[in-house]
C-alpha cells in the first residue's frame, strides 16, 4: 500500500500536527475498537478473541522494529518497563542519561538513589563520550520528545560495546516511522499511543536474552506464565521462556486497535513512512527558511507560534517554551503549507 492510498484510511477534522503527543488511528483501527467496545457493552464479547488480537499486535510490533515475538514483552507504559530494569541494577550502579530527555527514561533510574545508584546527566551529543568502565547502563530516547533530535546511535552503541554497558532506549517517538534493528540494543521500550497510533495504556519492550538473564520479573502474574490459562490459581511458578515473562495483563481494547494500526504501518513499510514524514516535515522547514532535518518532529522557537497555529486550525503542542509540530502518515503537503503560512 502506498502512502497516498493509505491516507484515505483517516478522517480528520483538524490539521493534526501533534502525533508526538498522541497519534490518530486509521479508520480500520477505530472500527475494530468500536466493535470490541460494543461487544463489551452488550455482554457478547469474547476475551479469547481480544487476547488473540494482543498476540497479533505483539507479532506485528516485533516485525516493525526488527525483533522476534519471543523477545517482546507487553505492558502498559514505558516507565513500567524502565522501572523493572532499574530495579535489577546492583547497588551503586552508574547510569548515564542525556540532559532534557523525557522523564520516563530518567526517573526510574533516579528512584534508586537511596541504594547508591548514580545517574549521570550529560548533553546528548556527549552521551557516547560519557560511557566508561564504571557505566552499567546508558539510557536514552532514540528521538528526543521535546526537540525531535535523533540520538547518535552508532557512537552510543560503539562506546557501550567497548565498556560492556547495557543499552536501553526509549523508542516511543521513533517506532512507527524510524527504521531500526532492535537486536542491536539490550532493551527497546515503546509506548504505543503516539506513532503506532494505538490507544493509551499499551507499551512494548524488546528485551534481549542477555538483559533478561539479569532482570527479575517482579510484576509477574498469570500473563507472565508459560501457560497463562493454567496459572490463575497456582503456587507453582513456571514463567514463560522468553520476554513474555515480563508481560503485564493485556490491555485488550488497546491491543485490538493496535493490531490494526500496526498492520497499516506494515503494509506501507517503515521506510516509506519515514520518507513521507520527512518530506512533509522538510517542506514545512523549507517554507520557514529552516534547514532540512532527519526527524518529523520540528520545534519552533517563537513565543506567539502556538496562538497563531491555533487560529489557523493547526493542532500542535507547546513544550519547553517552543511549539512542537509532528508530521505523520496523515499529514499532507497542504497541512505543512497551512502551518508554515501561519508562522511566516
TrEMBL record:
Coiled coil residues, start to end: none
UniProt GO MF annotations: transaminase activity
Keywords for the protein's UniProt record, in alphabetical order: Aminotransferase, Transferase
Gene3D superfamilies per the UniProt record, alphabetical: Aspartate Aminotransferase, domain 1, Type I PLP-dependent aspartate aminotransferase-like (Major domain)
Superkingdom of the organism of origin: Bacteria
Pfam family, one: Aminotran_5
Residue ranges of every copy of the Aminotransferase class V domain listed in the record: 52-288
Keyword Cell membrane: no
UniProt key word Transferase: yes
Family annotation (PANTHER family): CYSTEINE DESULFURASE, PYRIDOXAL PHOSPHATE (PLP)-DEPENDENT ASPARTATE AMINOTRANSFERASE SUPERFAMILY
Name this protein carries in UniProt: Aminotransferase
Organism from which the protein derives: Nocardiopsis gilva YIM 90087
